[in-house]
What does this fold into?
Amino acid sequence: MVRPANIGFVDADRVLHDRIVASTDRIIKMMTAKAKAAAISSVDVPSLVFHLALGIPAVETDNPEAAERITNAIAFKRRMIDAAGGALTAEKVRTLLGHKTIQAVYKAVKDRRLLMVEDNGTKLFPVFQFDGNAILPGIAKVLSAAPSTTGWALLQFLVSGDEGLDGMSPITLLKGSDAEVERVVRFARTLED
It folds into this structure.
């Protein structure tokens, strides 16, 4: 049996090791808190790898700069969703609010009574806006105050705040008094400028 000459021998173990180590920080930054918790609770290596893979969004491009931008955008969105208490699917929102159809959930979005963000075709509903089985009353006021602002821009404002709110979180203020809700609404109006 004739074997082809092995030109340019590559130590596959070393290459794989180096790539995994180099990617570790990026992988951790992309993962949600829930995915991290699942990975931490893994009892063996296959379970760990499985949970890591579930927590990493897919980025397909041959352009390293584009891949980096996409990866950073994904990580940023994940951090916002985490800061908002996570997110629910339309079906879970339908069940939570007691609606008969998912269309009722989307009507609430269209009527600016419910905040929705879309991530790669998936419609997500940040958890902070729910109080038990109801939508926080201040959400509709904030959404109405900034009718042309995208869901992601509104979510960024709500989780990050504004200097004029004296370090108070808009999410916390929305759960407070009418005066606190009005402060958030006033600042939400500036998002349209």
Notes: The first strand starts at residue 87 and ends at 88. The longest helix spans residues 64-83.
